[in-house]
Amino acid sequence: MFDPASLTVQWPTEGDAVIETFDMQGRRVRTEFTGHARGVTELTFRTTGLAPGVYMVNARQGGKRSTRRVTVLQ
Predict the structure, then answer these.
(1) Is the pLDDT of residue 65 over 80?
(2) CA pair distance 73, 70, nearest whole angstrom
(3) 3-state SS string over 11-69?
(4) In the predicted structure, residue 38 carries a pLDDT above the cut 70
(5) Beta 53-61 vs 15-23: how paired, if at all?
(6) What is the DSSP letter of 4?
(7) pTM of the model as a whole
(8) Own/partner pairs for 35-40, CB < 8 Å, 24+ apart?
(9) Scanning 2, 18, 40, 48, which has the fewest C-beta atoms within 10 Å of its C-beta?
């Protein structure tokens, strides 16, 4: 059984935004969110379909970006 993780982003402003997950070779493995965002966005980060390993989750809006490392165990 895979437990989902919570993903919370505080956007710096209002506008188009994207949250993507990348593997350690820099390949995008999926897009978690794309659309208009403001304030706080809360998502469920599911590990289904991801192999065990380390991934980078990247949130972008305008010229601002935040990246966090996520480790998938199973």
Answers:
(1) yes
(2) 10
(3) CCCCEEEEEEEEECCCCEEEEEEEEEECCEEEEEECCCCCCCEEEEEEEEECCEEEEEE
(4) yes
(5) antiparallel
(6) P
(7) 0.89
(8) 37/9, 37/11, 37/61, 38/11, 38/13, 38/14, 39/10, 39/11, 40/8, 40/9, 40/10, 40/11
(9) 48
Q: How far apart are CA 16 and CA 73, in angstroms?
A: 32
Buried b (16+ CB within 10 A) or exposed e, 20-41: bbeeeeeeeeeebeeeebeeeb
Query: What is the distance between the alpha carbons of residues 29 and 13, in angstroms, rounded to a whole number?
Result: 26
Q: Tell me the pLDDT band of 46, cut-offs 50, 70 and 90.
A: confident
